[in-house]
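Researcher: I'm preparing a figure for a lab meeting and need a structural model of a single chain. I don't have an experimental structure, so a prediction will have to do for now. The sequence is pasted below. Please return the structure as tokens so I can convert it later.
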Amino acid sequence: MQRTFAVLGALSAALGVVAGAFAAHGLRGRADLLAVFETGARYQMYHALGLLAVARALDRWPGGAAAVAGWLFVAGIVLFSGSLYLLALGSPSWLGAVTPGGGLCFIAGWAVLAWVAARG
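Model: Understood. Here is the structure written out token by token.
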């Protein structure tokens, strides 16, 4: 399972860089959309690093709880960053209702990861 999260983290980081580059070039002149897209890319990169931390936690503290944190990060990336990307690219504004769910997944993932580290 640790390999899964290491791969997902590395791929997510690569996609975060691609998203940031797209935003910088493809949304030039659209400051409002650029800011939304860049927020998605920034949070994707943070949580790509979180996935790498999960991979390390699974190595150090085997068990299912760290994997739960990893899947929460994956869900957060899809819901939070994904919805922001789609909104910036012109999807209907109701999609913005999905974004907070992704944020909650991020928060829960970090809380679970903290619990895993605390119980060691």
